[in-house]
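Q: what sequence does this backbone want?
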């Protein structure tokens, strides 16, 4: 080599080293962006907002909803649905709305009470709690330790000082006021003080309750006075009609509750030794013994045991006592059917670590004989209807009823020409109900959901009726649910109930491409929203109609109203009406990223094919003559999210904001992945390749500048894909699984179960255990094939992620770092499976945008 060539090479190396050093300095400088600078980047998007629909007045003339801004601000909006006038309330908390009144409290305790008839309003400050009683038009306002009982004109009915607690009773008209020196029971309907107890300091109140005797409500109190338990009963005139010492009945019990009829439930922990050990300083020094003969892992068994109680049922009308003791393997118990039975649940009876959901055994025990009178070995869903002495349950693909008096079972859905079950993600081991049943408000009917239809079951006639009459195999109907019921210790309240006679139904195509809304009223099915590529959320109902949010990829959130009973006599057909359009000051269609859906026929065989689709998000002012860097975002069927409106934001739990990317000149592809059993990774790779090729036929993606990203299972899919292809210039994997073998043999501290079921009965769709298919585990394990990766990878996780343990991200990082591959790991403090902390969201968005720009935009 000549001198000139040597000098040239040395100068080139010098310049290259200098450029590399300058790039590193620039990157280090860029990485030291302050929180204030990041907030400035997010600032232009601060006024983008979502809508949360809260309530619609019974007559449909008033709507209340919340605007949630990108920077965390909230506003409550009260809208007159007739003239569309709006009143705005900053930072709302609790709210109440009916035809005549709107009441709102903010977190600072500022209360606004508005009369909707005359627009008069008044305000209060330092309010901790309010309760409006519609029957009497009165209001309870708790301020600090003072309670004000006010009439509709804001006139004081009564004031109470030194209030410690305001307790609602079972009867909606009655409330208990706990004061420092007395208890007062008030009836808001009659506006009377029914019971006043002045000797509260002489004992401790253990339980309160109500009972109805000959149409009169009686008030129940259990006191501990010294070492004695005293039962007191008062009538509505405040007279003490029972004062009974029941100490001998309740020895050794420490928790109490009144049940109907005339029964006191007393409980105590069944395994006190476990509770005392777990609460002691030496708990971490205890040796745990795990045994393969156990049903479930030891920590889960002990969690269930710690909550188990022995119970005594004392009937104070006849001094009769029944006992219910914790049983071996019993994890939950419910006292049912007039306090004569316990429904016992053995959650771990069928645990073999491979099922996503525990499949419990249930059994009914007669408390008088202590005999098991009925049992189902394996079920997923069961419901108790007290007034019918009946248990409704799902077994072997059908819905059944069991009557505890006749001791007979009846198959409700046996003769229906439809299936009422589905398999979990292609696994044929267990079958699950398509959906939970819903009970009518009067408890006369039950609504069951089949694969394609909704069915009405009349309890008296024992008749099953198909109310949707759908014969299209590509459509599914489901009932819109509202709220949830609760289960307290030993008491059954979990009865999903429809709020009123009208039933809101969701209808969607089986491929999730389109969905619509319908209402079933007066025996007829009416269309609210036709099948389309939109989403309908936060549905609320009133006496005459419903309201809901509406959105799609190209339409910001709207509040819409549909009335099945119209006040307009000229209106022949009910139609959905837009009440409010969000983001009018932010959204300009021509300047916003466009969401499109691309469909194509996918061949299954020579004779059969089906329609597949992907969502594509295009940059504003998309130019087909220009090539665009492209990012593929994956997680099972990500394509269905085209129905959701996503505004650009720096505050993102998963860090990938498709509109922010499109604004910055990227095309974003959301594929739909169709899975083949035992091929979780290969299925994703095939779907991604197919989507890229189909999208590339119509849109100007730059195949030389492509990235891929996924979170959770989508993170695993990303990890796998880059072991099989080098088509992507870079990849981002979040809260992901890097080593599926170690994941299979790991223990989840959230569920207290092994993670085995997450591979055999969830997204991975594996049909056997590790030892039956080692080659499948090897083929699909990203860390086993990390040596084949040539794609720079950014990995991130929350440092407190125990849903998918953050060490899985560390494993993927170590696999690549040990091979000197290009990889970067971000671990965010005090966050879990998604980024909830605002500072972490900002930092990650900054980091990932820089990552994309560096590799895809040079």
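A:
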């Amino acid at each position: 080599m000549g001198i000139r060539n040597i000098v040239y090479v040395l100068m080139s190396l010098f310049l290259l080293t200098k450029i590399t050093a300058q790039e590193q300095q620039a990157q280090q400088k860029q990485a030291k962006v302050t929180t204030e600078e990041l907030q400035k980047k997010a600032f232009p998007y601060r006024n983008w907002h979502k809508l949360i629909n809260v309530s619609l007045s019974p007559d449909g003339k008033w709507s209340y909803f919340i605007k949630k801004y990108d920077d965390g601000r909230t506003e409550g909006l009260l809208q007159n649905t007739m003239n569309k006038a709006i009143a705005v309330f900053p930072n709302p908390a609790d709210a109440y709305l009916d035809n005549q009144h709107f009441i709102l409290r903010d977190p600072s305790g500022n209360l606004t009470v508005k009369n909707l008839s005359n627009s008069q309003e008044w305000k209060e400050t330092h309010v901790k709690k309010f309760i409006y009683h519609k029957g009497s038009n009165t209001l309870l306002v708790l301020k600090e330790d003072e309670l004000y009982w006010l009439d509709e004109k804001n006139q004081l009915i009564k004031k109470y000082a030194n209030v410690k607690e305001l307790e609602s009773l079972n009867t909606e008209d009655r409330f208990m006021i706990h004061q420092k020196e007395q208890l007062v029971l008030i009836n808001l309907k009659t506006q009377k003080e029914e019971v006043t107890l002045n000797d509260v300091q002489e004992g401790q109140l253990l339980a309160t309750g109500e009972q109805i005797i000959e149409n009169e409500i009686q008030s129940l109190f259990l006191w501990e006075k010294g070492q004695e338990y005293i039962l007191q009963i008062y009538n509505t005139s405040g007279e003490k009609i029972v004062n009974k010492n029941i100490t001998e009945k309740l020895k050794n019990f420490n928790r109490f509750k009144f049940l109907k009829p005339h029964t006191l439930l007393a409980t105590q922990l069944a395994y006190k030794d476990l509770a005392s050990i777990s609460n002691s300083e030496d708990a971490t020094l205890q040796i745990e013994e795990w045994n393969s003969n156990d049903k479930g892992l030891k920590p889960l068994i002990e969690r269930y045991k710690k909550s188990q109680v022995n119970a005594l049922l004392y009937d104070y009308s006849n001094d009769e006592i029944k006992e219910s003791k914790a049983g071996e393997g019993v994890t939950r118990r419910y006292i049912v059917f007039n306090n004569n039975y316990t429904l016992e649940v053995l959650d771990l009876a069928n645990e073999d670590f491979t099922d996503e959901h525990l499949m419990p055994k249930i059994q009914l025990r007669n408390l008088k004989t202590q005999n098991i009178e009925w049992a189902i070995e394996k079920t997923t869903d069961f419901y108790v209807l007290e007034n019918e002495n009946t248990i409704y349950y799902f077994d072997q693909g059908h819905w059944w009823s069991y009557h505890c008096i006749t001791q007979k079972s009846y198959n409700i859905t046996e003769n229906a020409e439809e299936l009422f079950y589905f398999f979990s993600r292609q696994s044929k081991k267990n079958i699950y109900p398509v959906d939970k049943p819903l009970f009518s408000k009067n408890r006369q009917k039950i609504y069951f959901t089949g694969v394609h239809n909704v069915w009405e079951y009349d309890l008296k006639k024992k008749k099953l009726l198909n109310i949707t009459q759908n014969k299209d195999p590509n459509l599914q109907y489901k009932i819109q649910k509202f709220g949830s019921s609760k289960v307290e210790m030993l008491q059954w309240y979990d009865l999903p109930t429809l709020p009123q006679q009208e039933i809101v139904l969701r209808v969607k195509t089986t491929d999730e491409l389109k969905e619509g809304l319908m209402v079933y009223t007066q025996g007829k099915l009416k269309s609210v929203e036709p099948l389309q590529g939109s989403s309908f959320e936060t549905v609320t109902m009133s006496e005459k109609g419903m309201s809901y949010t509406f959105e799609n990829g190209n339409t910001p959130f709207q509040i819409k109203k549909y009335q099945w009973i119209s006040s307009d006599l000229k209106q022949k057909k009910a139609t959905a009406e837009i009440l409010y359009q969000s983001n009018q000051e932010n959204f300009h269609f021509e300047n916003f990223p466009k969401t499109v859906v691309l469909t194509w026929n996918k061949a299954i065989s020579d004779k059969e094919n089906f329609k597949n689709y992907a969502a594509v998000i295009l940059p504003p002012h998309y130019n087909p003559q220009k090539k665009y860097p492209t990012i593929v975002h994956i997680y099972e069927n990500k394509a269905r999210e085209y129905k959701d409106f996503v505004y650009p934001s720096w505050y993102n739990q998963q860090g990938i904001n498709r509109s922010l990317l499109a604004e910055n000149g990227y095309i974003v592809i959301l594929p739909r992945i169709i899975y083949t059993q035992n091929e979780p990774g290969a299925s994703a790779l095939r779907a991604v390749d197919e989507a890229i090729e189909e999208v590339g036929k119509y849109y100007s993606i730059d195949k030389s500048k492509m990235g891929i990203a996924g979170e959770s299972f989508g993170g695993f899919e990303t990890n796998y894909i880059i072991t099989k292809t080098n088509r992507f210039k870079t990849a981002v994997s979040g809260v992901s699984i890097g080593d599926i073998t170690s994941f299979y043999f790991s223990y989840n501290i959230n569920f207290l179960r092994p993670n085995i079921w997450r591979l055999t009965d969830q997204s991975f769709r594996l049909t056997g255990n590790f030892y039956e298919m080692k080659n499948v585990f090897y083929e699909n394990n990203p860390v086993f094939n990390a040596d084949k990766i040539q794609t720079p990878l950014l990995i991130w996780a929350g440092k407190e992620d125990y849903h998918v343990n953050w060490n899985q991200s560390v494993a993927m990082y170590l696999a690549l770092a040990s091979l000197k591959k290009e990889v970067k790991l971000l671990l965010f403090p005090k966050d879990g499976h998604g980024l909830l902390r605002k500072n972490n969201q900002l930092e990650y968005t900054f980091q990932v945008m820089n990552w994309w720009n560096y590799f895809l935009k040079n």
